[in-house]
Specification:
CATH topology of the largest domain: Metallo-beta-lactamase, Chain A
Number of domains: 2
Strand order of the largest sheet: 6-5-4-3-2-1-14
Order of helices and strands: HEEEHEHHEHHHEEEEEHEHHHEHEE
Largest sheet: 7 strands, mixed
Oligomer: single chain
CATH class of the largest domain: Alpha Beta
Radius of gyration: 19 Å
Number of helices: 12
CATH architecture of the largest domain: 4-Layer Sandwich
Number of strands: 14
Helix content: 25-40%
Structural class: alpha/beta
Strand content: 15-25%
Length: 323
């Protein structure tokens, strides 16, 4: 594709793609072409790719990202910094990624979305990749593709690759409802509470063998409780109050920052309440805030949850853990 036509596509905001905007009853729905046949015996597993909350990059935990794998097919939730390397460490071929779901469009969730797509493309991607999430997802990808348009054009011309921009299918939505159904797996979204964002979502994957809910980044959310009702697994973010106090004490605007975090994240005690009220079987703690306080042991992360009325299994997540 010549650079003039590419600039027109990017400026127009089309990305060469059809973008789905939610109607009154649903968020955004599309039927994706099946990749591999799903069977009644298909297995569904979760891989925690990145279990640290927030955008800072640290030694240890990687930034937010999760994976659902059903019958060998991966479905990626969030693209925090380091997700490409974590996928490779988990044994996932980047070309296998066909569906990506973003819980919100803050940097800690989409920082590596563009580079991941580019990495898959340079590894030989030739099939479409569907990316689902709230605004301004489309604008963010458009900006990324503009920033590397010279490289893309060069590789299309010299390496005869298909146009990356045309391969990426963006689906924006801004309300709760069914997102997509593919290979017998229904994916739904619920709007959660992460002020000041207007559009932050949790996801639920209903597979032939397992129902899996993801909180995304959220404060205590009654909407999420109803959404995750009776799920086999709830993967939920968590914030430790003692760790929060130590973290904010080092910041110049500690009161304001503390207030914002308390209003947009879920404490250990609240997570137990969410899991109990949703009546889920297994609770997986992840996206830890703070994610770099080594004085907080796994037992400490789980202590308040176990003091709650939740009677199910509690798992303290670690990077690359499979559930």
């Amino acid at each position: 594709m010549d650079s003039t036509r590419r600039d027109l596509l990017l400026t127009a905001g089309s990305l060469g793609l059809a973008t789905t905007v939610g109607g009154p009853a649903v968020a955004a729905t599309a039927t994706v072409k099946p990749q591999t046949p799903a069977t009644a015996a298909s297995d569904a597993k979760i891989v925690l790719l990145g279990t640290k909350g927030g955008p800072r990059v640290i030694k240890g935990r990687s930034n937010p990202a999760n994976l659902v794998v059903v019958s060998g097919t991966p479905y990626l939730i969030d693209c925090g910094y380091g997700v490409t390397r974590q996928l490779i460490e988990a044994g996932i071929d980047l070309q296998q990624i066909r569906n990506i779901f973003l819980t919100n469009c803050l940097a800690d969730r989409l920082m590596e979305l563009g580079p991941l797509l580019y990495g898959a493309w340079t590894n030989g991607l030739v099939e479409p990749v569907h990316v689902w999430g709230p605004p301004p997802l489309k604008r963010a990808l458009r900006s990324y593709f503009q920033s590397i348009s010279h490289d893309i054009d060069l590789r299309i011309d010299q390496e005869r690759r298909p146009d990356l921009v045309q391969l990426v299918k963006v689906h924006e939505f801004d309300r709760s409802g069914q997102v997509t159904q593919v290979d017998g797996i229904k994916v739904s979204a619920v709007k959660v509470r992460h002020p000041p964002l207007l559009n932050a979502f949790g996801y639920r994957f209903d597979t032939p063998t397992r129902s899996i809910a993801f909180s995304g980044a959220t404060a205590y959310s009654p909407e999420l409780i109803a959404f995750a009702r009776s799920a086999d697994v709830l993967v939920h973010e968590v914030m430790h109050l003692g760790g929060l106090e130590r973290m904010v004490a080092q910041l110049p605007k500690a009161p304001e920052f503390r207030k914002r975090l308390l209003g947009s994240h879920t404490t250990t005690a609240e997570v137990g309440k969410v899991a109990a009220e949703a009546e889920v079987r297994t609770l997986v703690l992840t996206q830890f805030v703070p994610g770099d306080d080594t004085s907080i042991t796994e037992d400490m992360w789980a202590a308040d949850v176990k003091k709650s009325s939740f009677l199910g299994k509690v798992i303290v997540g670690r990077d690359l853990m499979t559930v």
